[in-house]
Amino acid sequence: MLTVYSDDHHLHHGRCELIGGQLMPCFEMPSRADHVLARVRKQALGPVREPEDFGLEPIRRIHDAAYLEFFKGAWARWAELGQDGDLLPFTWPARTLRQVMPKSLHGQLGYYTFDGGAPITAGTWQAAYSAAQVALTAQAEIQRGAHSAFALCRPPGHHAASDLMGGYCYLNNAAIAAQAFLDQGLAKVAILDVDYHHGNGTQSIFYERSDVLFASIHGHPEAEFPFFLGYADELGEGAGKGFNFNYPLPAGSGWEHWSAALEQACGEIERYGADVVVVSLGVDTFKEDPISQFKLDSPDYLRMGERIARLGKPTLFVMEGGYAVEEIGINAVNVLEGFQNAQ
């Protein structure tokens, strides 16, 4: 299996995030991707290559042009103010406030974010842009006939909506790749999100569409980030009704309950008749993940990959979360090896 990877992810290294009432060192750090890459090479999973550059147009197919302009230029505006710390929001247009666009940098940052977990640094735009190119390059490999590919993206993407960043995510790599498949002639794409946290950005992007089925297994939003999306009764709207499936599970869920949800999600993908599957591969379902509450163990990820392989579809794996850094490489590559071995 080909792995696509860019060293540009090192350009994004936030100093802090707002979590648990404190400004804490970021759980989303460069060593995450470094550990996964090291494991890919140790296990001889397959070749590793740098991404091609497909430009901004495939990204614009998913993300709002004004949002992209803001994100690309935010750090320069911050630096012009004489600042060199992370750019983080401190106010948001909450339910009782107007959804208007201020002129100030801080006002616009609040408009385009939903939490304090997506710091912008000097290299964040380039890292996120390159992560999108990683996903597009792996997508192109499958479009050219490969049965599978792994996009080792960092920063992750599944919390990013068309004009909203948050949850460590800025550009939605999985959604960008899914749209590319459609733009290149496929009719139906399924996105399977196995990250502990609901892929709220991906859901919102495709919620009113029938050409992308979205299925997510995640911690129940009654108690888990992102809290305001990911309930089982969210089934899509308009043309998308019946093409969105959420499987929220309680804290402490292990493989027995998690795999039952996977079986249901795979059943929906099979009934849908997808041409290709995009897997938002988060491994923060691991029992020792510091910010998650599921109890999967490393061998479970092999079984996860085996079940996804039984779908019999070309499959693009896109790296998302996972914060037990020492084990992230083992768990992510176990999914990929399980998939390959089951073919």
Give the structure's gist in a few sentences:
The chain is of the alpha/beta class and 343 residues long. The chain contains ten helices and ten strands.
Structure description:
The chain is of the alpha/beta class and 343 residues long. The protein has one domain: Histone deacetylase domain (Arginase, Chain A), CATH 3.40.800.20. Helices cover 37% and strands 13% of the residues. The chain has ten helices and ten strands. An eight-stranded parallel beta sheet has the order 4-1-5-10-9-6-7-8, sandwiched between helices. Strands 2-3 form a two-stranded antiparallel ribbon. Strand 9, helix 9 and strand 10 form a beta-alpha-beta unit. Helix 1 crosses helix 10 (325-342) and helix 9 runs parallel beside helix 10. The termini are close together. 52% of the residues are buried.
- CATH homologous superfamily title: Histone deacetylase domain
Query: What does the average pLDDT come to?
Result: 97
Question: What is the CA-atom radius of gyration, in angstroms?
Answer: 19 Å
| N-to-C span | 12 Å
Number of helical regions: 10
| Biggest sheet architecture | 8 strands, parallel
Low-confidence stretches: none
- Please give the share of residues in helix: 25-40%
Total number of domains: 1
Shape: globular
CATH architectural designation: 3-Layer(aba) Sandwich
Strands, count: 10
CATH topology category name? Arginase, Chain A
Label the structural class.
alpha/beta
How much beta, percentage-wise?
Answer: 5-15%
